[in-house]
User: Which sequence fits this backbone?
């Protein structure tokens, strides 16, 4: 069957990337004067998570060095719920793959699922904290601030959520998501976070903001007294920086890779316009997308395929990569069973595209409107079907960087990764526009 030709496109988002991340991190920490709250020799628990945050190892090392220089004894703990298979060893391994280990950080990594209960919130939510963090002299968190894939609120994914859910480990995650299913996760995050404050352990956190190129673009040290208010302001800023897939409507979105390291839901719901609760095209942040085809899982997802059910079709390869136990633990704890429904799957890319393309209402597959991305974090380079160019080229951010060409299937009916296609055409990543 005939398919439309495609063109390579670059989206020239503003480049907000920090040039000297360690210096900027140090300056922000000094401005917040967090060390004045602790005595010399204090044991400081630094919480780090499981997302693929830009330069996270460099940032965490700068935080470790700050506390050391002020006479403290820092250690790092995984502030994760069900990630890493909900095991202490798995969570330490996740951090290590991001370059966060004892040798490179210059301090211990203390990974455990043991927790301390701090009682219940007014809503009846039992609140938990990592035991080693609670027994320290102070807790300092490091996390990216961004929109959440499951809810909208004044604070979404960031330091408050890490404090409320990540620090509660697996025991907390089960409680919080169960209540979130009934009263809303945004209510749970705020309630649990506010219940944590009186224990006096939380010193604050370092917020990381990324630009549309997934670069660390701002770091801000937030003392606990103003953390929630400041995080809400930073969330609005980073939402205004977000990359978007251009256009109003797509018949098919091709995604090379999904994974827990890319998004908490494998693919960012507000990019592919799907909800983990079953709704489609419910967000204004993305085009109306009729069908989603996901090709494989990123290795740093460790087999966790939460969000695979957001796709309409996948390759057999992706299904073979799934660690069902890790996936069940995450998805069922999060109370989102729709997220692990196995889509229809075929062995070849061509089969997947042709079979699912026939369900879009297009009588001729050559009329399909298609966009192709590497993953939902990388939106600056994409391929689009030639028939979308009249609409997209009206967008000043869009730069067409190739002539139209046929989808590059090999003799087995499979596509290369989009990054390889850009390299073959000499299109590169392009130079971001200076903000």
Assistant:
């Amino acid at each position: 069957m005939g398919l439309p030709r495609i063109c390579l496109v670059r989206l020239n988002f503003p480049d907000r990337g920090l040039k000297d991340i360690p210096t900027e991190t140090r300056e922000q920490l000094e401005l917040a004067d967090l060390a004045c709250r602790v005595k010399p020799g204090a044991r400081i628990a630094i919480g780090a998570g499981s997302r693929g945050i830009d330069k996270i190892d460099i940032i965490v090392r700068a935080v470790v060095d700050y506390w050391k220089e002020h006479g403290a004894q820092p250690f790092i703990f995984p502030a994760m719920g069900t990630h890493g298979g909900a095991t202490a060893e798995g969570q330490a391994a996740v951090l290590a793959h991001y370059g966060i280990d004892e040798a490179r950080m210059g301090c211990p990594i203390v990974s455990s699922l043991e927790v301390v209960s701090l009682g219940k919130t007014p809503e009846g939510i039992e609140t938990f904290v990592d035991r080693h963090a609670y027994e320290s002299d102070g807790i300092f968190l490091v996390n990216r601030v961004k929109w959440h894939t499951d809810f909208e609120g004044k604070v979404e994914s960031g330091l408050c959520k890490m404090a409320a859910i990540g620090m509660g480990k697996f025991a907390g995650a089960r409680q919080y998501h169960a209540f979130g299913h009934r009263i809303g996760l945004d209510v749970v995050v705020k309630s649990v976070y506010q219940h944590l404050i009186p224990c006096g352990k939380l010193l604050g956190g370092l917020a990381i903001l990324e630009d549309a190129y997934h670069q660390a673009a701002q770091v801000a040290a937030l003392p606990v007294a103003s953390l929630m208010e400041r995080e809400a302001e930073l969330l609005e800023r980073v939402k205004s920086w977000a990359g978007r897939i251009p256009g109003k409507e797509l018949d098919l979105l091709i995604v090379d890779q999904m994974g827990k390291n890319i998004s908490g839901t494998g693919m960012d719901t507000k990019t592919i316009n799907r909800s983990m609760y079953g709704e489609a095209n419910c967000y204004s942040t993305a085009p109306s997308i009729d069908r989603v085809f996901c090709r494989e899982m990123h290795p740093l997802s460790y087999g966790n395929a939460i969000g695979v059910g957001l796709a309409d079709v996948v390759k057999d390869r992706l299904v073979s990569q799934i660690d069902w136990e890790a996936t069940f633990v995450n998805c069922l704890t999060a109370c989102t069973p729709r997220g692990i429904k196995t889509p229809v799957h075929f062995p070849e890319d061509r089969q997947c595209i042709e079979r699912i393309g026939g369900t879009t209402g297009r009588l001729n597959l050559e009329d399909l409107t298609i966009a192709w991305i590497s993953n939902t974090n990388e939106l600056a380079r994409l391929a689009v079907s030639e028939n979308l160019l009249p609409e997209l080229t009206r967008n000043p951010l869009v730069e067409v960087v190739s002539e139209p060409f046929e989808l590059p299937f090999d003799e087995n009916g499979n596509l290369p990764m989009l990054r390889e296609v850009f390299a073959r055409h000499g299109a590169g990543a392009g130079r971001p526009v200076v903000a």
